[in-house]
Every structure is written in C-alpha cells, then in structure tokens.
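=== RUN LOG ===
request id: a7f3
mode: sequence -> structure
chains: 1
length: 310
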Amino acid sequence: MNKLKGSSKTAEFLKEYEIVMARKLYKVPSMIYPFVHEVPFIMVSTRDIDPLFSAVLGNFLHPIYLANAMFERHFLIPSWGLLMDMIAQVGYSYMHRNWVTVPAIQKEISAQFPDLPPLLDLEKNTSLVLLNTQFSMDKALPLLPSQVEVGAMHCRPGKPLPQDLESWINGAGSAGVIYFSLGSVMDSKSLPLEYQQIFLQVFRRLPQRVIWKFEGELKDVPDNVMISKWLPQQDVLAHDNVKVFITHCGLLSLQETIYHAKPLLALPLFSDQPKNALRARDSGLGHSLQWEELTTEVILDALTDILNNV
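=== RESULT ===
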C-alpha cells in the first residue's frame, strides 16, 4: 500500500479525481485505488444484477426469483431450472469465487501490498452499484439505495436517417424491412460461410427488404438486401416500416428492441445472450433459435410467424 501511495505517477493521475468507477468484470484491481486514496468506488454492472455481489452489499436475493446472469434457465421445466440455477450460484459464484479465484488474486496482490486488507473486505467499501437493468423491461427487484438501475437510459426516439437509408426502407412498401445485426462484438463477416449462405437463401425468398450489418465483402447479394458495415441502430429500429429485428440479443439491443416496440428473432451467441433470448421469447417478444438448428426453412418459418402473429 505504501508503494501504491508513494507512486508519483499514480498520485499525479488521481489527484484530480474524486471518484473511481470500474466495470464489475475488472473490479478487483480497481478496488485498491479508492481504498488507498480514500475516494468513493462505484461499480458498473453491464449485465443483470449479480446475486453474490448484491449479498456482499447486504441485499440477499434468492435464486427462486433471480436467475444467474450467465445461466440459461429453462422455464418450461421450472423445478429443474431452479435446481441448476442454485447449483450455478452456490457452486460457481460462491465456492469457485471465494475458494479459487479470489485466493489466487489475493496471493498476487498480498505479495505486492502486504498491508492491504483482504479483497473480500475491500469490496464491501463499494459506495454505489449502477445496474444495466430496468424494472419495466425485466423483473422488479428489492434493491438497496446503493443499487441503482440505469438500464435503457441510452434509449431515445429515432433521428432522421441518411437519405439513402430512408429511401431504401420506404421503397420496401407495405412488405416492410427486416433489420439484421449481431452487435458490436461479433462481426457477421466472422460467421462460417455455411451460415452466410443460409441467410442469403432466406433473404432471397422473402418479400421484405433486408438491411444486414455486415462488416466485409459479400458475394451474390440478392437485390432485396442492403449490406452496410455500420448502421444507426436506434434510428433504424424507430422507423415504422421496420418489421422485425434479427439480433444476437445482447442486453442493449434487447432494451432498444423493447423501447422501439419491434418483434425480434433472437440468435444468441454467448455470455448473457441465451438468457436474454429466453426472456424475450417467454415474454412474447418473438422467437429464439439455436445456431446448430438453423436451416433455411427453420428461419423462414420463424420469420413468417413473427411477421404474422407477433
């Protein structure tokens, strides 16, 4: 700790700041600075609330009404889903974290800063947690004053689209437009060629026009498909003639979909996306498909049902 306090570069960097904010994923090293320099620590959770960390702050949330953010609860088999969720939370979240992950990190930090308090004590000094949730889009949960929901704050009414994009969407007529994006982390160009071809075959058979966020070059693109490396997503979703959103179901995309009242076809990839997709499906927002089951007919059937019934 003295080494950290005595670092001229660190002191110079921090002297103008009165608060330290860090993403939950990287909170362990970030907790040291606010303790040493006696400033508040704010943690930002980019996913759902973490039941374990909520308990650290004094708010115990039972897994019977709060699924783990990384766990795909099978709502059609509720008792099995609850059991697996409790195993995930107790077995992984608590035991693995407290007995494996934290001790390994603690060993490294204690070697450098022997007079620093234990990490499990430091995290209790968290002043505020900002949660990427919104009770009207998720579950209403009992939260402490130090747990504040900020989810969907980025959602806003649509702005005017670039003229070429506006003309393309309006030119679709009453059939409308389908918007397809896998988010900012996963590039559509990284999809295996077989999946790219499946989607092209699907789009070729649709009466709708399609806007596909695709970050590379694509051959044999049908006339009803527009390819773009970047798109103003909220402005596209806000357009009245956009009928369906094919999405990876990241939390921000899900919030924007709900805000702009568009049905969706979820194709979750990893992290919290499978859970988000299940929640969207069970809430009647659209359909969710697994990548291993994708065929031209499966996607066409799902889109047809969404366009006609959702």
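=== NOTES ===
The mean pLDDT is 87.
The longest strand covers residues 242-247.
=== END ===
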